């Protein structure tokens, strides 16, 4: 099956078409501390795919070199009952040490890094630079035909930047996914 999007057609993601609020679903950011060993990420992802849950964002990095622990930060959507089920099932996976729902446990800080390649000349090039400045995006590569912007912030900020850059020649983007920590003690 081939999907063809005609020029001028909406490039909206399939995930944007569903009304999550009407279904009683909400987005949650989960922080999971696991042993840094092979196969752990596959087990976590397997839990989601096996039960039909979607992962909107996923980041993994070692956070304790001496204890060989990694933090998996994932963003998912679901009803309160589904989120509780996900947390309980994650907690039962053997190498999982902690599961935190940062969305309900209190204030947290969430950031994402994005790289955006914008190709254009003339007025479009100047407008891309102007918008980049407004968003505090850093130009990390420049040629006569394109720029690569680096931007950090919330996922909503990166989404807004991408929307404004599309008509100016956005040709590629790479995003890290959400990294998050709870605030305070």
What this model shows, in words?
- There is one protein chain.
- With 185 residues, the chain is an alpha+beta fold.
- The protein has two domains: 86 residues, ACT domain (Alpha-Beta Plaits), CATH 3.30.70.260; 74 residues, 2-Layer Sandwich (Alpha-Beta Plaits).
- 26% of the residues lie in helices and 38% in strands.
- The protein has four helices and nine strands; from the N terminus they run βαββαββαββαββ.
- The strands form two sheets. Strands 5, 6, 7, 8 and 9 form a five-stranded antiparallel β-sheet that branches. Strands 2-3-1-4 form a four-stranded antiparallel β-sheet, with helices on one face.
- It comes from Paracoccus contaminans.
- It catalyses: 2 pyruvate + H(+) = (2S)-2-acetolactate + CO2.
- GO terms for molecular function: acetolactate synthase activity; acetolactate synthase regulator activity.
- One of its GO terms (biological process) is isoleucine biosynthetic process.
- InterPro entries: Acetalactate_synth_ssu, Acetolactate_synth/TF_NikR_C, Acetolactate_synth_ssu_C, ACT-like_dom_sf, ACT_dom, AHAS_ACT, AHAS_small-like_ACT.
